[in-house]
Amino acid sequence: MVLSEPYWDHHIPLPKLGPLHSRLVTAFVALICFINSYNGDFVFDDSEAIINNKDLNPDTPLSNIWKNDFWGSNLSSNSSHKSYRPLTVLTFRINYLLAGGLHPIGFHVLNVALHCVISVLMIDVFAILIGSLVHDGRGVKLNLSPKASFLAALFFAAHPVHTESVAGIVGRADLLCALFFQLSFLVYCKAFQGGDKKFPVLWIFSSILLCAVAMLCKEQGITVLVSENMYPFERVAGQIKLSLFLPKDLWTDFYFLFSTQIGGLVSSGLLMRLALLFLGGSFLLYARWRIMGTGPPSFTEVDNPASFAENVILRIVNYNYYYSLNAWLLLCPWWLCFDWSMGCVPLIKSATDWRIVWPLLLWCCLMGLVYQALCSQDSNKRRTLTFGLVLLVIPFLPASNLFFRVGFVIAERVLYLSSAGYCLILAYTVGYCSCHWKKHKVCAATLTLLCVNVARSAQRSQHWRSEQSLFTSALSVCPLNAKVHYNVGKNLADRGNQSAAVKYYREAVRLHPKYVHAMNNLGNILKERNELEEAEELLSSAVHIQPDFAAAWMNLGIVQNSLKKFDKAEQSYWNAIRFRKKYPDCYYNLGRLYADLNRSIDALNAWRNATMLKPDHSLAWNNMVILLDNTGNLAQAELIGKEALKILPKDHTIMFSLANVLGKQEKYKESEGFFLNALKINPNVASCHGNLAVLYHRWGKLDLAKRHYELSLRLDPNAPGTKENYNMLKRKLEQRQRTVG
């Protein structure tokens, strides 16, 4: 079947560019929208997926990316989010290798480049969806809608809702998924190159394989098979009008439909294609389910409150309200936020809530589009709107809560593919308006919309350059979101502004009284400010709300230790270890408690456990050396210090402690070597100069002792004991001079 060129394509107020020029312009628009994010930092979820993800480290076996989820947790773990995206993690690992470490520029550049490529490929996808797949006599593919496909691709390239996927490195999953979604669809269309009746099965299997690759980048990739199912059906059944089913002559029309259209499905090979896609999709879904291991992930009420509503009607209403908000983000992407959970979108709880109007309006618009897609006399209009709706709705289904509970309220990144359907419908709207309204007005409106979107995308990608700008930009969009205030506070605390951080942590706890992470962080700051009673109260509340919160138990133990509540502190530490078996920091703090209680053996055992769990735990090693030194076990202290330096050969604090031990054993030469090595690493440590001076003093190298005493006093004039030792040395030197004289 050959479709005519869409009549409205000629009326679109854009110049008719050649294939190369239209692609270059689209890529350029995509580039200028997001290029200012290229040298941004790692922000928000990047810390968990990239910075703290050991699967990126070249020292980690490559096979681990096939066993772990997107965040580096084992898929069999109950705490795993089951986000199985090994190919995305593999690209992160390649970035790490090429950059020689965690340098964000390479990560960002690849994201922007991927968006440019995807935007360019959208021209081909839109051309097929609008004007069908048509070839000339030489087999060259023809674009029957050059202006419409170009305009839709421009809308896609510049849409601000894409910022999270492009400027946020974790959005790489959406970009790769979209890329292989496109490639799978375009390869599938190759099956029709020789006509409907002759198609190579190889193209179908290649399409399914690319769908599998898309799924290994992000789960949403499976939806390409559903979209492909719609494409050949439209080619065969595209001329069917809904008016055939009107009561006038229903049975005659039904017979006509069955004999001429349904019968053609078999001869056209459509049923075989559908069967292959169905079998391939079923296999991929089964494989994906098996990979999940322990079943679907579990989420909490704060992640997706509507899914926990007891009343089914309220649940459905709120889901539909979420859909309307997603639609609004496509229509007016001004209110964008990195996180929409924790009170950002209050639940609709009664029929009198005025917000119930938005789901109703959404469904009225969708029903209107569906009616036009099915009943219009214009086949090109039916085709464009049908595929626009398919591309809008189908990729969004995994995020819709229809099949399983998702871990978010709204996530702009899941609209990356769905926005293509919106852009296709928007391009048709421009073409339709150009046919019926004054073209210069439509042209002005179209250019204004494109320019506004480009400017908004550039502004939004600027927000994503740093956590400070990203988090503060959300305060005006979601002022009721406790997580926004928490992240602003955490960013301030990380930058050393603890006083300002307290304000935001308190607001986060006020908005969400069970926000245990905000309580924990606030308690830590209050602990540092010596406001111990309030810190203990907050941390006690946190562990009461979430009894398995190991970090809060440990921090509570630190506070109780400071309050001299030693028994309670010990119990809190053991609770932390009970809920997190491998917790080296907790063993370290437990050792400090035992040291304060003069339980030296228990302290050494605790610190030894810390170093076994974390061999590079410098503080635990150093404390063992110091404790053994203080208790007179110099030989054992020497052994521990040298063992530690095999693991941490450049740790100047351990060198310093070991040098002191060796000096007490009168191993002056060896002690001197460790002191000097420590000073090479950190030459501005007054105590190291002072103790080296004492060593030289005892060793009889008085001139060197004098020099290092002076260096120590220059760095710290109030260094304890140094001034007295220096005065003793000066008297000794004066006495020696008098004797010589």
Automatic annotation (TrEMBL):
<keyword id="KW-0472">Membrane</keyword>
<dbReference type="InterPro" id="IPR019734">
    <property type="entry name" value="TPR_rpt"/>
</dbReference>
<keyword id="KW-0256">Endoplasmic reticulum</keyword>
<keyword id="KW-1133">Transmembrane helix</keyword>
<feature type="repeat" description="TPR">
    <location>
        <begin position="686"/>
        <end position="719"/>
    </location>
</feature>
<dbReference type="Pfam" id="PF13432">
    <property type="entry name" value="TPR_16"/>
</dbReference>
<dbReference type="Pfam" id="PF14559">
    <property type="entry name" value="TPR_19"/>
</dbReference>
<feature type="transmembrane region" description="Helical">
    <location>
        <begin position="414"/>
        <end position="433"/>
    </location>
</feature>
<feature type="repeat" description="TPR">
    <location>
        <begin position="482"/>
        <end position="515"/>
    </location>
</feature>
<dbReference type="GO" id="GO:0005783">
    <property type="term" value="C:endoplasmic reticulum"/>
</dbReference>
<comment type="pathway">
    <text>Protein modification; protein glycosylation.</text>
</comment>
<dbReference type="Pfam" id="PF08409">
    <property type="entry name" value="TMTC_DUF1736"/>
</dbReference>
<dbReference type="InterPro" id="IPR013618">
    <property type="entry name" value="TMTC_DUF1736"/>
</dbReference>
<feature type="transmembrane region" description="Helical">
    <location>
        <begin position="201"/>
        <end position="226"/>
    </location>
</feature>
<dbReference type="InterPro" id="IPR011990">
    <property type="entry name" value="TPR-like_helical_dom_sf"/>
</dbReference>
<feature type="transmembrane region" description="Helical">
    <location>
        <begin position="254"/>
        <end position="287"/>
    </location>
</feature>
<feature type="repeat" description="TPR">
    <location>
        <begin position="516"/>
        <end position="549"/>
    </location>
</feature>
<feature type="transmembrane region" description="Helical">
    <location>
        <begin position="386"/>
        <end position="408"/>
    </location>
</feature>
<dbReference type="GO" id="GO:0004169">
    <property type="term" value="F:dolichyl-phosphate-mannose-protein mannosyltransferase activity"/>
</dbReference>
<dbReference type="Pfam" id="PF13181">
    <property type="entry name" value="TPR_8"/>
</dbReference>
<dbReference type="GO" id="GO:0016020">
    <property type="term" value="C:membrane"/>
</dbReference>
<feature type="transmembrane region" description="Helical">
    <location>
        <begin position="356"/>
        <end position="374"/>
    </location>
</feature>
<feature type="transmembrane region" description="Helical">
    <location>
        <begin position="20"/>
        <end position="38"/>
    </location>
</feature>
<feature type="transmembrane region" description="Helical">
    <location>
        <begin position="169"/>
        <end position="189"/>
    </location>
</feature>
<keyword id="KW-0677">Repeat</keyword>
<keyword id="KW-0802">TPR repeat</keyword>
<keyword id="KW-0812">Transmembrane</keyword>
<comment type="similarity">
    <text>Belongs to the TMTC family.</text>
</comment>
<feature type="domain" description="DUF1736">
    <location>
        <begin position="295"/>
        <end position="367"/>
    </location>
</feature>
<protein>
    <recommendedName>
        <fullName>dolichyl-phosphate-mannose--protein mannosyltransferase</fullName>
        <ecNumber>2.4.1.109</ecNumber>
    </recommendedName>
</protein>
<feature type="repeat" description="TPR">
    <location>
        <begin position="550"/>
        <end position="583"/>
    </location>
</feature>
<dbReference type="GO" id="GO:0030968">
    <property type="term" value="P:endoplasmic reticulum unfolded protein response"/>
</dbReference>
<keyword id="KW-0808">Transferase</keyword>
<feature type="transmembrane region" description="Helical">
    <location>
        <begin position="112"/>
        <end position="134"/>
    </location>
</feature>
<dbReference type="InterPro" id="IPR052346">
    <property type="entry name" value="O-mannosyl-transferase_TMTC"/>
</dbReference>
<feature type="transmembrane region" description="Helical">
    <location>
        <begin position="319"/>
        <end position="336"/>
    </location>
</feature>
<feature type="repeat" description="TPR">
    <location>
        <begin position="584"/>
        <end position="617"/>
    </location>
</feature>
